[in-house]
Structure formats: C-alpha cells, structure tokens
Design a protein that fits this description.
elongated, alpha/beta, Spore Coat Polysaccharide Biosynthesis Protein SpsA, Chain A, 15 helices, seven-stranded mixed beta sheet, 7 strands, disordered C terminus, 2 domains
Length: 409
C-alpha cells in the first residue's frame, strides 16, 4: 500500500478559517486531515460543523482545554494507530497562517527525506506581530544552547513528524506551547535530523487567532535551562563542600579536586541524565563518556585554579569557584553533544556537532560503548488506538475523558 500523508490540526476556539484550512489540505493532496477540538467553547461549534463532510476528515474532541501540546499528542496517537501506512504526520495551525501549498510542500519534503523532522520556517520581517516575534526570539537561542542547533523558526506550527519519532513525542508530558520545544529536543536526543524549508508568512488580523502568551509561554520554554542551572548549583554546593573538607585535611589542590569530583559525580550524572537531557540511552553508552568528561574537566579546572592562584593570589576556594564558573557553559555543551546524545540515523542537514564529534571519537572509544539503537518503531505505543470499524464515522469518534487524561499524563 502506498504511503499516506496525514495533517493534524489542533484547534481551540477556532474561526471559520479552520474549515478552509482543512478543505485546502485535502484538495492539495493530503490523504487525511485530523482536527483536534481542544475543549473549545460552544460558540465555536459552527467552525467544526463547517469541516468538510468527507471520510478523509476526522474530528477528535477534548472535553476540556488541555493545551496545544496535549491536542497534538491526541492527534498523533490517533493518526499513528489509525493510519499504519503514514510515514510522516504534518502538523498545521487552525488560524490560516499556513498556506495549503506550503503544507503540501512540507509533506512532500518529509516523503523525500524519510526519518527527518521537517520544519516550515517563517521569516520574521516587516509586519510580523509582536507575539510571533517574541515567541521565536525566546526560543531561538535556547534551542541553540540546549540542542546545539541553529534554527530560523523554532516555534513554527507547520512541521512534518517522521513516524519513528511519534512514539517518543507521545511520552512528552508538556501540554502547552513548550511541547514544540520539547519536540526539537526529542529529535536531538533520538538522533533525528532536522530540516528547514522556507514558507510564506501569513498573519490574519494581526495574528489575533493565536493563543500564544508571550510572557507565560516564553517562561515555560526556559525551564530546560533552569533545570540545568538548579542541578548545577546543587552539584557546585556538593563539590565545594567536599573540596573544602578535603583541602582542610590535605592542603593539596589536586587531591581535593578528585575528592570533590567523586562526591558530586553520582548526583550530577543521574540528575542531568533524567531531569535535563531526558536521555533514554543505556548507561553503557553514557557513563563511560561521562567519567571521561569528568576526568578531563578535573584537569582543566585544576590548571585554571593554579593559574588564578599564582596570578591573582586569590584564596584557593575563590579561585575554584571562578574556574568552575568559566567552565559552566562548556560543561553543558559537552554533556549535550558528547554524553547525552543519540546517534543520528543519517547524515546531512540534520547532523549537528554531536553527530560529528561522536563519529570522530567512536573508533577511539570502541563499539562496546555505542548506544543500543533506540528505535521508536520498536516501542510503538498501543494505548488507545480507536476501533478500526469507525473508519467512516468522522464525527462519531470522540476520545473519552478518562482516555485523554491517561494519554496526556
């Protein structure tokens, strides 16, 4: 059977523009359109009633508003189970921001480059609304820092998600706009290449149909870096306490550094792996690299402490704090690109520093340390796939409240 393309459209209190988007998608060659009503008010019922009356159009409902991320997960889960022939799932906004021709282009790009996450990148020039500028600006440098990727549009709602990545996204707990940032991080950690193509920038009535809150939603996407900062502060406290205790007993900087690193290593490894980088790689593929990084960091830090003490005559503890502060961002980047990173399934525009660095070091480290393949296909979720007999009942299929709550928990 030929591969299919499915477009998922999350909608909260949409206008009649929703029906136009859905109809244009079907007319442009998209095989199926899945609309998710994210608990819209009764006043928006007309927008959903105007959807094309076709077995290729599917309407899912949330009993209450759960957020864009939750709506995307509901649509992805349904599409993944309902259309096993689909190799990619296109997501688009309900407010008409995305031209049907661009939606079709993103779908074609995904079919031509299987296994890659395709982003439709807008240009933020001219009359782009403030909330759109703010949303993209808030996350562009964040993605550059956390994921090691320079992307032009990190908040675009027009994306093509490869089938292999979908089960990983269904496990992401984020329910709001931060889900779209977590999607990029999931792609990075699973080794999924990311590809951008330019699309038209369309804003209707100053983008009033968007529910993005520049302040609240921008703060949510900073939590990834905030988690790392919090863990770094706790690690620094443990490290410095152990260093002070060891230095007071031995008077030797190197021995105290070793003791401090060993004391902080156990906490930092586990916390960074789970809370910051959310890595699912086996310990056999990460612990050895982490130990190697800690060892290298120890010697660099020791050298900086010696240099600061000799040139400034500062107390050893203050010199240590200064050295560790200088290494903060470098440590983050190395954890991201060397330790807690998935191995790419391919090369090309999606490959980043992590793939290039790991490729160069693999021969030195040995195949034993290579992470086992974490194929999303082999871990496909079987949560709540709808009854296949409901194929022709577009409006009859509605997710039950308890099921949605379980799927989004």
């Amino acid at each position: 059977m030929a591969p299919q393309t499915v477009c998922i459209i999350p909608a909260y209190n949409p206008t009649r523009e929703l029906a136009l988007v859905a109809a244009a998608c079907l007319d442009s060659g998209i095989d199926h359109v899945v609309v998710v009503d994210d608990g819209s008010r009764t006043e928006a019922a007309g927008a959903f009633e105007a959807l094309p009356d076709s077995p290729r159009a599917h309407l899912l409902r949330h009993a209450v508003n759960l957020g864009k991320g939750a709506a995307l997960r509901t649509g992805l889960n349904y599409a993944y189970c309902r259309f096993p022939e689909a190799r990619a799932f296109v997501t688009a906004d309900a407010d008409g921001q995305h031209a049907a021709a661009d939606i079709a282009r993103v779908a074609r790009e995904a079919m031509e480059h299987p296994g890659e996450l395709v982003l439709g990148a807008r240009e933020f020039t001219g009359d782009a609304p403030f909330r759109s500028r703010a949303g993209n600006l808030a996350t562009r440098w964040m993605v550059r820092l956390v994921a090691g990727r320079r992307l032009a549009d990190t908040q675009t709602g027009l994306r093509a998600v490869p089938r292999e990545l979908a089960p990983l996204l269904l496990r992401i707990p984020a329910a709001g706009y931060e889900f779209e940032l977590d999607m990029l991080l999931a792609a990075k950690h699973s080794g999924t290449p990311i590809r951008e193509i330019a699309i038209r920038t369309i804003y209707i009535d100053g983008n009033r149909g968007s529910h993005f809150n520049p302040l609240v939603d921008s703060m949510k996407i900073y939590f990834v870096l905030m988690r790392f900062c919090g863990i770094a502060l706790v690690t620094a406290a443990l490290d410095n306490l152990a260093f002070v205790a060891a230095y007071s007993l031995t008077g030797q900087i190197l021995a105290s550094q070793v003791a401090a690193r060993l004391a902080a290593m156990a906490f930092n490894y586990s916390a960074a792996r789970k809370a910051v980088f959310q890595s699912r790689q086996p310990h056999a593929g990460t612990l050895g690299k982490y130990a190697l990084l800690v060892g290298a960091n120890l010697w660099v830090s020791y050298g900086l402490i010696q240099l600061i003490v000799r040139t400034t005559h500062a107390p050893v503890l203050w010199a240590k704090i200064a050295a560790e502060s200088l290494l903060f961002l470098a440590n983050f980047a190395l954890l991201r690109d060397f330790v807690f990173t998935g191995e790419a399934r391919g090369t090309g525009p999606g490959g980043g520093l992590s793939q290039r660095l790991w490729g160069r070091l693999r021969k030195l480290w040995g195949e034993a340390a290579r992470p086992a393949p974490d194929t999303a296909e082999s871990r496909a979720l079987d949560w709540r796939c709808p009854d296949p007999r409901a194929h022709g009942e577009r409006r009859a299929w509605a997710s039950r409240d308890a099921n949605l709550e379980g799927a989004n928990s």
